[in-house]
Every structure is written in C-alpha cells, then in structure tokens.
Amino acid sequence: MEFKNEVLLYKSIGQVLSREIADDIEYYKLDALLEGRYNIYFDKIEHITNEHILRIINQHKYEGFFTGSTYHEDNIDFDKFVVFVNENSNFEGFYNKYKDRFNFINRGNNFYEIVPVGFSKASGIEYLINYLNIDHKNTYAIGDSTNDLSMLQFCSNSIAMGNSTQSLFEHVSYITTNIDDNGIYNALKHFNLI
C-alpha cells in the first residue's frame, strides 16, 4: 500500500517460500500467475494452455507490462497469486499443504486468489484508517467479486456493483448500477460523496 509515494504496508512471502510454491504449482499441476511488487511471473509460454492466462498475457503485452518473467527464475519473489484448477490438478493436495499460511478466495469456475493469512483488502483499509486517523464510520468500499468480500464486510458503507457476483449482495449496504452504466458515479451520488 502506498500513500503520497511512500510505501506504508507491503508483505512479500520471500524468495524461499516463493520458490517452493512455484515448484508445487508444477507438482500439483495447477495453472497460475504469481504477482509480485515488481513483476508478474507466468509459466513458460510454450507450456501455457489456459485461455484466461493467455488472455492476461496478451493484455499485459498490449499495455506494456509483460516482461516474459517465468516462475522458473531463481530470484522469484511474489506476494500473492492466482491458480486455475484443471482436470489434471491435485488442488486438494496443494490446498492442504498451504491452507494454514494462505487464504484461498474462491472466485468461481475453478479459479482461486491466494493471499497470506492476515493480509486482505480489509486489513489494508484498517491499516490506512489507523494511519490517517479516519473514523471507521467514514469508510466506503466498492466491489464486484468475492475477492472484495473482506473489505465490503469491514467498511461501514459497502457497495456492490450491479453486475457483481450475486453472493455479495447480502453483505453490502447498497447495490449500484452496472459498471458500464455509471455504477461508481451513481454509488458516490447515493452516499452524497459527489
């Protein structure tokens, strides 16, 4: 987390654990991308068959973010990652090995976002409001997916986009219109923020 060009909060999982996880992604036959502070790591291009990962790579190439870094590099270091489970995966084995150190956020369709225990969007917001001495009643969160659930449950004023994952609706104080139908604007107007 950065504020006024200063890093306030950052949690790397370190090179040793990063290497272990990268090796286990291959061992347990998962498709993945590993997200670090300075780099995003993929499998070697010739090994990737997952259409979602290929789409992300193409998007990163288009936007100029793709560096070609793979999770076979010696100095790999990341802070969170996502996995896609395929028909050959042993997800249960991977989950059982890491469930005590990581939270597995089920994003649906055999897609999981995985973050270190104790670190979430909610913990980031909590850190920031304490750092800036902001009253909790003045917290707002807008989300659309299960990876937003922690912050939506934490903030006093929680907003789901109209096109959100349906399971979010019961956890928010307001449902706005779809993202492409001025959803954020309408939410901010609803709460008299603009």
Characterization of the model:
The chain has about 190 residues and is α+β, with helices and mostly antiparallel strands. It folds into 2 domains: about 1-115, Hypothetical Protein, Haloacid Dehalogenase-like Hydrolase, Chain: A, domain 2 (2-Layer Sandwich), CATH 3.30.1240; about 135-190, Rossmann fold (3-Layer(aba) Sandwich), CATH 3.40.50.1000. It is built from 6 helices and 10 strands, in the order E-E-H-E-E-H-E-H-E-E-H-E-H-E-E-H. The strands form 3 sheets. Strands 4-3-5-7-6 form a 5-stranded antiparallel beta sheet, with helices on one face. The model has no long low-confidence stretch (mean pLDDT about 90). GO terms for molecular function: magnesium ion binding; phosphatase activity. This is HAD-IIB family hydrolase. Keywords: Hydrolase. It comes from Inconstantimicrobium porci. InterPro entries: HAD-like_sf, HAD-SF_hydro_IIB, HAD_sf.
Strand order of the largest sheet: 4-3-5-7-6
Helix content: 25-40%
CATH architectural group of the largest domain: 2-Layer Sandwich
Number of helices: 6
| C-alpha Rg (nearest Å) | 18 Å
The description of the largest β-sheet is: 5 strands, antiparallel
Secondary structure: number of strands: 10
The averaged pLDDT comes out at: 92
Structural class of the secondary structure composition? alpha+beta
